[in-house]
Amino acid sequence: MNPLLTIALLLVGVTALPAAEWPPMEPSKSSTINGRAMETFQHGVKPEWGYAAAQEDSFVVVHPNTVRENAPLYVVLHSAGHDVFSAVNCTSTVGNHDIYRAPDDHYALYLDCRKNKKDWWWGGMHPGDKGLIERNSGGNTMPVEKRVMDTVAWTIQRFKIDPNRVYLAGNSMGGSGVLGIGMRHGDVFAAIKANVPAGIEHVSERLFFPPKAIPADLVLPDPPICINYSGQNDKWSLGHDRFVQAMHDRKCALFFYWGPFGHGNNSAKIKEVNDLIDSFDWLQVRKTEAYPVFTNSSSNSMLPWPDNLQSTEAGQVNAFFRWKTLEDTAQELEMSLFLLTSTDLKTKFEIPKEASADVSIRRQQQSKLKPGAAFRWHFGQTQGDGRLDTQGLITVPRLKISSTPTTLRILPIDG
């Protein structure tokens, strides 16, 4: 055959190859890890994501040990030092980015943001990311976030996931992505967990934290419960005082743990400094259950940010509060509130026998109350009246919560 004709035919063959599409079809590779089935999917872009040019991305789905419908989903965002494949490989070794490891009975979804430049989870928002702050400031949804959310939705549908048990986890840059992406999507994620998030700028922009304000025409869903653990001796943790204050002011549920464990990712080593990081069972939170938000708690430790970063003390916010929803109808809400005891939780921290806190209620399923509506509350031997705030949230101030479960009862007041 004529060599020029051969080259021409080869070129035609190359150009005739189908471009990667969205959504993906069948996996490009199937294998196993830790005895679990694993599938790799490659895909192109969806025009609605808003990427300036075509690109290809990959994601990995790891199956539970026993495959079943209605299983929960554990979504992972990797750090800047990893890609989707190295993040999955970390799960083969205990102590290597432990937050990447999904429970055996969960599906796990690992996404990638390393292959394509400028496609970071956070968009480049930390002061350490030179030249990128101005480009990525503002509350607009970045293409990478749209890609993440569409991939989660595709995975839920493809593998028949329980849509009420979807969780988001990440380390470092992935932790920043967890906060920035996860907090805006409480309609998808039941709870989120960030291991040493590399900056709070992303979430501050996406949630319009002060000095900004939520636009009047933007309605945000109730956020997921947020677990965050950061080291005050980690340069990437700067600004956590502003993050904690904003979460408090917005009445967002936060379990926050810290100590001088740096930018760590080995859970056992971090627990030598603060043994609370896994104490809240976040993977039992369901999107369809009301939950309380605790603010102004008397049991919180003093934050080392911004002025005491040399502190060698470990601390916590809201670590010892727990609850159980008993009733959630249009007529009433009943929720049992209590503190853990030393029998429930083995920790180096001293668990108080009683703590006071303001308690707000989010994710009510049946309530018809609107902002400004009146309600009556009962808690043990105490009671009072209140009104929903401008967010439509019920808040009961200064409840004294102990290790004895006590029922908070909320009743609408007609008229």
Global Rg: 23 Å
Structural class: alpha/beta
Strand content: 25-35%
| Number of separate strands | 18
- In the CATH hierarchy, the architecture of the largest domain is 3-Layer(aba) Sandwich
User: Looking at the chains present, what oligomeric state does this protein adopt?
Assistant: single chain
Please explain how this structure is put together.
The chain folds into two domains: about 15-290, Alpha/Beta hydrolase fold, catalytic domain (Rossmann fold), CATH 3.40.50; about 320-415, Immunoglobulin-like. The chain is about 20% helix and about 25% strand. It has helices spanning about 5-15, 85-90, 135, 145-160, 175-180, 200-205, 240-250, 265-275; strands at about 30-35, 35-45, 55-60, 75, 105-110, 165-170, 190-195, 225-230, 255-260, 290-295, 315, 320-330, 335-340, 355-360, 375-380, 380-385, 395-400, 405-410. The strands form three sheets. Strands 1-2-3-5-4-6-7-8-9-11 form a ten-stranded mixed beta sheet, with helices on both faces. The chain has a five-stranded antiparallel beta sheet with strand order 12-13-18-15-16, with no helix packed on it. It has a three-stranded antiparallel beta sheet with strand order 10-14-17, with no helix packed on it. The termini are far apart.
